[in-house]
Amino acid sequence: MKINSKIITTFLGKINGVEIDDYDAYLTTESILQQISDKFPNIELNSEFIKDFSKAVEGYMDYETLEKDLGNSVYEAEKFEDLQFEDYDEINEKIKNGKYIRA
Predict the structure, then answer these.
(1) In terms of pTM, does the model score above 0.85?
(2) Where are the alpha helices (DSSP H) in 43-88?
């Protein structure tokens, strides 16, 4: 059997200039960024956070649960520096050390 397949379009989005090619990772990153912005309005995150975060959540199977869990982490943090996402140790360390704050 001959199969003729072709991808007509692929997803490509941008958040603050950072390209994200996974639709679900884009939506999750956008949602969490909005929650962070709402909770910590004086925090300006750099593009490194967006890159790291979107790559960390890319390919996750249950985005609805992931967004809920990550959103709960944002809700529970009293300060941005205290924000801890379960199973994202490298991101947590950079948050704690201020590496994601735009200078």
Answers:
(1) yes
(2) 47-57, 63-76
